[in-house]
Amino acid sequence: MAQRTVLVVLFDDVQSLDVTGPVEVFAGAEKCAPGTYRIRTASLDGAPVRTSSGLTLVPDQALTGAPEPHTLLVPGGQGTRSPDPRLTDWLRGHGPRARRLVSVCTGAVLLAAAGLLDGRRATTHWAYCDKLARDHPAVDVDPDPIYVRDGHVATSAGVTSGIDLALALVEEDVGRDVALTVARHLVVFLRRPGNQAQFSAQLAAQTACREPLREVQQWITEHPGADLGVESLAARARLSPRHFARAFLAETGTTPGRYVDRVRLEHARRLLEDTADGVEEISRASGYGTPEAMRRAFVKALGTSPAEYRRRFRPAPVH
Fold it and tell me: Where is this region: Disordered (predicted)?
């Protein structure tokens, strides 16, 4: 197996975790399977850079003398807001040469500025998706997933999603066993699929201010298979159904029914991805009752059936 060079671009005000998260994943894979990865870091002139959190990172070399990489990784951070034009020029000239082009967080902004995302689907941190779409209309910006892969280009939502993307790349390059070992060492999930939303149902909705409503939100999350009708939830909150529905919408920004739908879909997706349970068992555990009801929910929300979703996003074991 040929060694893959991973070149990480550094610049002032880079976000440190966007760098160190993926680097730890690739370095962990190299320890498990020596000769797999060669990791290099480089800044424009080879000088140390100061991250947005105040840490100083010392690169291996200058970008001008950096080896041609298999994987070119561009992190994000405050430094992407007003990047050095020399960096954008370097990416424009060298990005197309990489076998794999990867960005973390607002590193996608640098790739877009260099014209490397034109005509491609991409994502970035949720707070910058609208701006990326406005500034670069040739880029098909998807604000929902934690990472997106379009051909040899992969973009991620930022921070911990850079670790998810790096683990997915390691699994592709070296196999599931190595990726699993690295994930266990880092105490993270082996694989959050790229299509997973940047926000869970609990984060996408606002947290209710009043304690009874917060308790109901938690109850829904922990008991997706229970009776989650408005009457039952209202009784748990000790409110009338009408008062409960109005208060829930006012404090969370969504109706009880929509919140329950999203929690159940999220729960079913996790079971399809992470377990070997049958569709009928999962439909009951997730509150759908029948496989047909779950199938209709999946088709409506995701455009695919539960069986096809599992085929796509639950990888076969690597022996």
Answer: 66-85
Segments forming the whole domain that contains residue 251: 201-319
Rounded distance, CA 100 to CA 170, Å? 13
pTM, two decimal places: 0.67
> Are 177 and 212 in a shared domain?
no
The residue behind tokens 């994502």 is: 123
On whether both 180 and 72 belong to a single domain, the answer is yes
Residue among 32, 105, 129, 209 flagged as catalytic: 105
Domain boundary among 160, 186, 212: 186
CB atoms within 10 A of CB 286: 24
Domain count, the chain: 2
Active site residue 32: no
pLDDT in tens, 157-201: 977 889 989 998 998 999 988 988 888 888 665 555 545 554 444
Asked if 106 and 131 touch (Cβ cutoff 8 Å), the reply is no
Nearest by Cα to 172 from 34, 316, 40, 28:
316
The answer to the question of residue 194 being in a domain is no
Residues 96, 225, single domain; the answer is no
Domain containing residue 264: CATH number:
1.10.10.60
**N residues, the chain:** 319
Residue 245 has pLDDT above 90, yes or no: yes
What SS3 state is found at 141?
strand
Q: Which two tokens stand for residue 166?
A: 């790096």
Question: Which helix (H) or strand (E) element contains residue 133?
Answer: helix 129-135
CATH number at residue 129: 3.40.50.880
Is residue 7 exposed (0-12), middle (13-18) or buried (19+ Cβ within 10 Å)? buried
